[in-house]
Amino acid sequence: MATLPSQEDIPFSTHPYATLASLPQEVIDLITTHLTHQDLSPCLSVNQEWRTALTPSFWRVVRVVDETILDRFGTKETWGALCQNSRHIQVVETTDLGFLRFLACHRSLATNNLRELTLRLWEEEEEEEGGAQPKTQASPRDSSCSPDGDNLENPPKIAPARSFDVIAISHELSVSHAGYIVTDAASLLKMILRRNKTLRTLSLDEGCFRDTIKNINDDDNGKGDYDHFHDVFTTIPTACLERLEISFRGAPALSDHPSEREKEDPTKEFKRGAFFHKSYEPFLALKELVITGSYKKMGSVRQTFLIRCPNVEVLRIDQLDPYTIVTMPAFLRYACPKLSRLEWTRNTTNSDNAIAELLQASVSGWKVLRLPMMSRFGSLALEALMESVETLEELRIGGCGQLRKNAILDLLCSAKKLRRLESVADGERTEEIIELKLHAYEAYKEHVEGQMDRTWALGPSVEFLQLKLLGVPRPDVWYNQCGGRLLDLNEGMDVALRFEVQQWIYTQLGRLTGVQELVLGITDFDQENLTNYGVDPALSAILDDTFEELLAEHDMHLFHYSSLEFSLKSGLGLLGGLKELRVLDVRKTAHRIGVEELEWMHENWPKLEKVKGLMSERRWAVDRDDGLDVKAAVDAWMTAHPHGIGSSFYS
């Protein structure tokens, strides 16, 4: 009988298991991007083969944040490891000028392979009209990922007495360049940028644009401060840069609105800046631009760099001051014709007109708009938004304060390509926030009696829809809060149209055959807002429908009565085509989902995982005495279907 060969006898090329060293470096990189330094550290000690293969990945990312380079690499071993492996560094984040100086000047950096560079060097706000600003504390960051030989968990700190000569390191870092001692950020940054031609991501703050240099022959130690914003930007490599972030520390002044003269100046400044920047290569690979907290530091002169950004598609802004909001749109329209995505995190008290100007900054039309809560979002802003209705694929508005009733209906009837429509997120809702909402009764009357086609244009492309549907005649509801009956919310509506109105809405929703999440319930309140109204936030985790139906002491609208019923009797069967639906949200609404409806959902919505807000005792109902029986039956049905509601969970 033939004997099988041992593993040692099998040639490497035919070995059934590949060794780590046999994998291409590209494959190793794909694997190690999912591992932390803490994961990689013990791997380096397995054997020499693993150490050789994984060392480049181990040193790929280096962060020196909220500490100095000497705090992190303050021993002979750690300093030697840094110098020896610096050629592997590709991603850098630092708040330390000393580490920046090392990257720019140290002789051990034979090659320059940086792909991502993030610098946060601004320590103190400049003096504004209101006086000097307090020193800004850097936000806590993960500083446990800087290489320390083989171990990253507890890198040794600098001790008062040690054998390693830190003074020698400091001398090495205080290098001279072209007859000057480089002591500040801008010159160091320019040295790095000139050498790293393949940089893909660059993130800078205000501290990177100040260049203080001291002539080594100056006995009086004279030095000067300069704004090197344009110098830095003309040095940034253009070949591969895909993402650029500029961060200006300090909160915008709410009253810092531009004067009429300042509104006229930007065009002149931009023309002058365009002439200057046209002599430099454009950022052809740049797709994403991030600007944070300008506080008038992103003035019209600095904005002229946009002339070199013709391919920018994504603009992310956060807390821009009113001056920048007013001046930037004209620059964007002229310089960035491919702009199609705007993500606006927070805004100041911008006017309806200012919001409209920014929404008109896209020449080709917005595909994605993610907007914050805007108390002054009104008719002008909506009109500007509607200019992109044919291209719009995703819209999120965290709250709009001055829209006329049913203004959102114009969008629903026109946005054929819309995939996501979102409003207030959980935990963000306050009394001041106006959600995206639709008055069903008035829309129905306009369509049927007003000779206006109010048919929604939304269709199979919609994946997520969040909308507060109100204005449904509900004679079956006893508006009972806090033990007393509220005003008749059916006033002005013909209650005989109870089912006709709902069936018309169901018909519109029925076209959303690709929708996966349908949010028609009430989102959770902001915890601080609850406290301000005298509600203990600790109760929010245990609030059930019963409690919320009774809790309205401050008219906080914790419950929604004039909502869709989602009962078969009201026309639920018209939604049988929603085969992709996974989540239905009807929280805090007067829905009538019972066992009969759950059985229908089980058969017709096979992928339905859950119904948020399903359990209810129906204390709001005229026939509320049956509420406990309905709830018990629903509880029993859900207990018998623990994996989900749809039939696909049980096939």
From TrEMBL:
Residues 125-157 are annotated as: Disordered. Residues 17-62 form the F-box domain. InterPro entries: F-box-like_dom_sf, F-box_dom, LRR_dom_sf. Residues 134-146 have a biased composition (Polar residues). It comes from the Eukaryota. SUPFAM superfamilies: F-box domain, RNI-like. This is F-box domain-containing protein. The lineage of its organism: Eukaryota, Fungi, Fungi incertae sedis, Mucoromycota, Mortierellomycotina.
